[in-house]
Backbone:
């Protein structure tokens, strides 16, 4: 008999608004102070100390506009955030610094019929070639762009509804995308940079806000409109567990980048203004 899904290890409260994005920062730093950054719909970025499970500071730099994305750079003291105020900001965790150059680097213009981009992921191949960009679009398609040449390398329609999130496994040249429909699809990239559908999993309820492949490429997590977090084996998209805690849409999921300690964590942020933490690796 399968074990029941686990309960959250702990929950963080106090963002004061729906949680849109999460980023762990646990690697290459003193392990007595692992951090989590969360971006909220009220424009605030909370810096959480995962040892004390308390907020260390709150960063305000987007004028109250919703924070859509946060990501650390090489050091835990450097953070990039993007908000609905059309600003991309770099932080030193003391003051906010706008990026020094506001010069437009390039513009990628696909066929207007595919609609607006819904999600993006940058990919730097190990070969040292120019950076590539994955984009998921409103018409349910995924595109791969060469940024240096401003050229479209490949395009695949893989959903009937807008692509809400995607991730890519560079080792296996395999990606995955979720949409506002009841489908989780994986696709592959061959040596000729041609995209092909591989697997598809039908979900019980529609709507994937976000998805993320764990760093060791074993587990895929999805954040659902139905308030649930779903875990899949990445190799075959085998359903592993359905985690239930939140009372509103789950908007983001993230895996820790280091053991904390002797265990890895997964975090989920929700429209219910809570961040739940899970240790699922021993149960599945």
Residues:
């Amino acid at each position: 008999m399968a074990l029941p899904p686990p309960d959250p290890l702990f929950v963080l409260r106090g963002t004061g608004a729906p949680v849109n994005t999460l980023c762990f920062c646990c690697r290459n730093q003193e392990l007595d102070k692992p951090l989590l950054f969360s971006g909220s719909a009220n424009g605030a970025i909370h810096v959480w100390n995962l040892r004390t499970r308390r907020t260390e500071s709150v960063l305000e730099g987007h004028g109250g506009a919703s924070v859509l994305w946060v990501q650390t750079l090489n050091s835990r003291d450097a953070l990039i955030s993007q908000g609905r105020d059309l600003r991309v900001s770099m932080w030193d965790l003391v003051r906010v610094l706008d990026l020094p150059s506001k010069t437009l680097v390039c513009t990628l213009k696909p066929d207007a019929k595919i609609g607006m981009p819904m999600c993006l992921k940058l990919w730097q191949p190990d070969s040292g070639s120019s950076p590539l960009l994955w984009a998921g679009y409103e018409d349910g398609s995924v595109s791969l762009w060469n940024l240096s040449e401003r050229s479209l390398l490949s395009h695949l329609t893989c959903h009937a509804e807008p692509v809400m999130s995607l991730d890519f496994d560079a080792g296996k040249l395999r990606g995955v995308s979720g949409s506002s429909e009841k489908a989780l699809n994986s696709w592959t990239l061959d040596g000729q940079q041609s995209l092909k559908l591989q697997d598809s999993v039908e979900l019980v309820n529609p709507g994937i806000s976000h998805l993320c492949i764990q760093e060791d490429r074993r587990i895929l997590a999805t954040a659902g409109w139905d308030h649930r977090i779903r875990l899949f084996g990445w190799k075959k998209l085998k359903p592993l567990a359905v985690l239930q805690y939140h009372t509103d849409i789950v908007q983001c999921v993230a895996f820790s980048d280091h053991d904390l300690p002797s265990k890895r964590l997964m975090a989920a942020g929700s429209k219910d203004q809570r961040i739940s933490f899970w240790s699922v690796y021993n149960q599945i």
In short: The CA atoms of residues 179 and 269 lie 18 Å apart. The chain is about 0% helix and 50% strand. The domain at 15-100 is CATH 2.40.10 (Thrombin, subunit H). The first strand starts at residue 10 and ends at 13.
